[in-house]
Amino acid sequence: MSQSQRSQSRNLLATGIFLVTAFAVTACAPPGGDAPAPEGSSGPVFGGGEPTCGEEDVVLNMYAETGFPLPIELADEFTRQYPNVTFETREDQFAVLTQNAPRVLRDSPPDLMRLPQMSELAEGGLLLDLDPYAEVFGWTQWPESQLEQLRVDEDGRRGDGPLYAMGLNFSMTGVFYNKELAAQIGMSEAPATLEEFDGYLKAAKDAGLTPMAQFNGGATGGLLFPLQGLMASYGETAPINDWIYQKPDATIDTPDNLAAAEHLQRWVDAGYFAPDINSMDYSQMMSRFIGGESVFIFSGDWESGNLDTQMPDNAGFFLVPPLEADGPQGAMSAPLTYGISAFAENPDCAAFFLDWVATNEEARTITVEVGGSHPMGPADAFMPEVAAGSVTEATLAAGDVINEKDGAMDFIANATGAIYAQSWTPNVQRLVAGEQDSAGLLSAVQSDYETEVAD
Amino acid sequence: MASPSQAAASARDVGAAAPTSRRRAAAPPTRGKRRLTATVAAYVLVLPAALFYIAFVISPIVRTAQYSLYEWDGISPATWAGLANYVQVFANPTLVGSILNSFELILYFSVVPVILGLFAANVIRGIATSRLATVARTVLFLPQVIPLVAAGIMWTWQLSTKGVVNQFLELVGLGAVARAWLGDTQTALPAVGVIGAWVQLGLCLLLLLAGMTKIDPALYEAARIDGAGPVREFFSITLPSVRQELAVCVTITVISALASFDIIYISTQGGPANSTLVPGLQIYYLAFFQRDIGTASALAMVLMVLVLLVVIPLQRVLRGRDA
């Protein structure tokens, strides 16, 4: 055997030994479930009476979403009213929160955290069961529709089971319009029927304006906003919620939803959307709308405060109109979800803060003025005055309509972990590209849904 | 397979000649003992680097291989899945589509910049003495020093409906073809490819130019005396002389095509309608958004194997017998 051959076989042997050892070391134990739970409470700690923040100094650890000043303003006001409580706040983009949520909730458990899709987190035992607090604080007396989306049962299905999160407010989607541009096309008030809305869209197109700039690019399927609004005009919202909550045999592929999807396709085919929506992200849509480059956009009341500042007295809001005047209509309406880690250090104080946000007059005023959305809480609770003619006034009024018509729905993108990214988004983008039709859209999504729910 | 003499020759090529001769000179008296000490010393010197390599390169690969055999959300206890995740990688049209997209990207990330790089380097070599050569070199290399994220953002603006690209098209009377390049399912992948080609061109140019400056000018003089024109010179002298550099260029750019992530994440995030989805992005989505660590790891392993399957034969072909 020559020297080089010897060294070759030596190398082979060494590599072999190394690989075997490496596999032996790592392959014994399956991943996950091996880390010990961090120190901290594993549930509500109050004994008798209402939980409070007490008299001693408390530092609440909050993990919030970048770009939303509401939680910070609420925290500042809370510290003003309860000087023994200070906040240590960390902020990240929503995508980062989504990526890190399980690790953060377990390894550096925050007292309050803005949650992404929460059912897996609750199912994984990472979130505190808030039912005991709900009983003590009387959250159970609030309209059930506010808390329904925050309940997760033991199979990870939402809509039922223990309460695992609370909202700082609940937001709602609809159509914003530019009042100046609307006047140009003869629209002086919100359309009362879908047909009327179609007429305005055509008028805008004929006038050489962009009727709707809607984000739908990259990993964002923004056409779901108009689609779901149309679904609520064409049919009932309850079956849509059943589908989102994964109730047995639920389907999104219904005749009503098909009619809604066909309506959306007519808008696409008629060129009512900006031609480049498949490359437009959310912030581009907002900047175009604020810059007066689009008559309408579909978004949510979380923009109300922003629009009142950026285009004062020039923005209006209405819900996707019903088929016939005063007919059924609905909107996506979801709480701005905050939860408490199952391993949090100060769960009682965090729960007290969440209750304060919903019940304190000062806090409710901040929620409306800064957040632009409706506060959580009892139906007859205090509501602050808002400027007449502001878009915030319009969105709050629309919220009352949705309550009256019982038209609140969760977002169809939240049905399963992957349905938004893997199914809705590519399919609505194909609809724009002419590679998918409305019937194909619904059947493709339903088929993906069934595959995923079956797993 | 290389013969022992060839292996020794190539070892000398990479500069191993000096230690060999030292060892030979010191060998006779206590050959065995000294050799042992030298070996131990060598291992001790290598140890720190080896430990880091095992901890940060080998161990993650082995762990990824392990995770790929489990159904795991990253937190709760994992369940054994065997090869089910691999079956899913090859059965899911979206995942297969992402792999095919990455192969199409080779055309833009590798073939285009290598050919353009060769052409540009050859031109710059021809005008080496003029100031224009320096300017051209700097301008063409510039994309390399710009962070990929910045390049992605910049190109997103340029390729938008009102961006420079469409403005230019309108200026030259091609307004009819203007479109949202990154928002059209037909053009999004080539548009992302253009960004990649623009970034990679600088690296290829610099590497190939470095190779060309090493060529003995006498060769060109001789060729010219024999009546060779610029084309003949290029194919008979320049191209064979820069084979090593070409191999490096192709290897690096092919890997960056197959394992691409940043440019695509910034410019299209895989959309519209998955037309620019690549395995790198899909691994990220699977692992961090869908919390399906098992499938993400399986796809990562498949991607690694694919890269090796493409790059190793390429190395053999391009570097010829030296490899």
From TrEMBL, chain A:
SUPFAM superfamilies: Periplasmic binding protein-like II (SSF53850). The keyword Lyase does not apply. It comes from the Bacteria. Residues 1-29 form the signal peptide. Keywords: Signal. Pfam families: SBP_bac_1. This is Extracellular solute-binding protein. The lineage of its organism: Bacteria, Bacillati, Actinomycetota, Actinomycetes, Micrococcales.
TrEMBL record, chain B:
Residues 1-31 are annotated as: Disordered. Residues 21-31 have a biased composition (Basic residues). InterPro entries: MetI-like (IPR000515), MetI-like_sf (IPR035906), UgpAE/MalFG_permease (IPR050809). It is found in: Cell membrane. Residues 7-20 have a biased composition (Low complexity). One of its GO terms (biological process) is transmembrane transport. It comes from the Bacteria. Residues 99-314 form the ABC transmembrane type-1 domain. It is a multi-pass membrane protein. The chain crosses the membrane at residues 40-62, 105-127, 139-157, 188-210, 246-266, 293-314. One of its GO terms (cellular component) is plasma membrane. Keywords: Cell membrane, Membrane, Transmembrane, Transmembrane helix, Transport. Belongs to the binding-protein-dependent transport system permease family. This is Sugar ABC transporter permease.
